[in-house]
Amino acid sequence: MQSQYLTKKKLPDTPGVYYFLDDKKKPIYIGKATSLRDRVKSYFAKDLIVTRGPHILDMTVKACDIKWQETDSVLEALILEANLIKKYKPYYNTKEKDDKSFNYVCLTKDELPKLTTRRGKELDFENLTDTTGTKFSVCYGPYTSGGALREALNIIRKIFRYLDEKSRVKGRYEFYRQLGLVPDISHEEGVIEYKKMIRHLRLFFDGKKRDLIKTLEKEMKAYAKKQEFERADATKRMIFALTHIRDVSLIKEENLVEKSGERVFRIEAYDVAHTSGKNMVGVMTVVVDGEVEKKEYRKFNIKGFDASNDTGALGQMIERRLGHPEWPMPALIVVDGAKPQINITESTLGRYGVRIPIVSVVKDELHRPRGILGDEKMAQKYEKQILLANSEAHRFAIGFHREKRRKGLFGK
Predict the structure, then answer these.
(1) Which CATH architecture has domain 264-410?
(2) Quick one: fold of 3-94?
(3) CA nearest 389: which of 251, 313, 285?
(4) Own/partner long-range contacts of 374-381 (Cβ < 8 Å, ≥24 apart)
(5) How many C-beta atoms surround the C-beta of residue 310 within 10 A?
(6) H or E element at residue 129
(7) Is residue 248 classed exposed, middle or buried when 0-12, 13-18 and 19+ CB atoms within 10 A define those classes?
(8) pLDDT tens-digit profile of 92-144?
(9) pTM
């Protein structure tokens, strides 16, 4: 990488989207940032391989230039990032993870459209339908962080009151309406206003905020001319909200996702389950700042072993996990076993140039914890979290193994 040339780039301390370009000026990686200056600077840190992994390190080696685009808010940077990834499909955004794993925001093709989210694996993009047969008018994405997308939708819903799947459930609509989260569609004028609002929402997701504000200003003047002052005032408030987007929660979420090594303490625990080598499976569980993150749990079908081989299975899991650079890197890895499990984990990480502290939980004959081996400082400081992560891994692995064995027995 032409690091000296790239580090001289004077990026602004503002939100936006940055592009790493190859020697043909083609985007190979696109990211969003609260501060373009600080984020791009982080790619030149000495501990890049630990904080971002070998995947991103390889990207920086091949990058020849950086371009960027400022936005008025982090929320708009998130939307712009998704639109640009969809347009360019940069190699290092999608390598080892296709669009089927990403999140999408979709509007249903109903008379009163609902906003909903889907995983790529649930969508038929060609026909704009999902696995249940629901039809969509448009789908936006991919959004690479589910947490960031949830926060974004919370912010957006305060500006555009939209219907979603939960608010359309019988008996819930009135509750959501009283909270101010959905519009009043009990009369014809309300329905007309809602359809207009959906058109505004689409402009926003298309990244056309300036066009949207111009449209709203025209509407506000038209309402005022007709002396519909209540509607004019509501439109004025929407313009103000769009020009003063309050995305503090999204900034916090970005820091958690993008700077997990600095802002939160993420533990990943691994365990293997099988019956004398048959139906061998492995799992990864996650504990962040002492709380389990079940949405981050992962299952692995272990392949290539005819007999019991716990260390081999563990090494395979770690290697496959490193093939997912989009998952935040952990600050600590917990394995079930003793010194052999630590060794195989350490050697697998080492092949990829990754250095992460490792501990193992040693069990007695009743599978109760009787000690923690490995990094002593980590073991003492995070004992409770380590045991929680290990317990969750054991429970999750046993459940997955039983599920696989049951399917093997009954062919389901």
Answers:
(1) 2-Layer Sandwich (3.30)
(2) GIY-YIG endonuclease (3.40.1440)
(3) 285
(4) 374/342, 375/332, 378/332
(5) 22
(6) strand 129-130
(7) exposed
(8) 887 645 556 789 999 999 999 999 999 998 999 999 999 999 999 999 999 98
(9) 0.63
